[in-house]
Amino acid sequence: MFVAMSKFVVANNMSDQVREAFRNRPGLVDSAEGFIRMEVLNPDDNPDEFWLVTYWQKSEDWHEWYHGHQYKASHSNIPKGLKLDPEATMIRTFNCIAS
Known about the structure:
The chain is α+β, with helices and mostly antiparallel strands.
């Protein structure tokens, strides 16, 4: 299994709108080849910080989705005017050793 984690921090007081957008997400990634599941996490100590954790059958599946048209389409529900802290944004990928 392959895991992709991305982190971002909302910089303009729109965290509530981001949470709502995730709750009502269109689910386009759900039908991507090799996709297993997604979790959206919001730490107790920083309500403006978000972590997305996606699980995939293999790294190639994630790379194909991330660089393809489905990735862009799946972000169409992003709240208008959202600003992120560019220094806090990151993507990390992992190979799952044990589960």
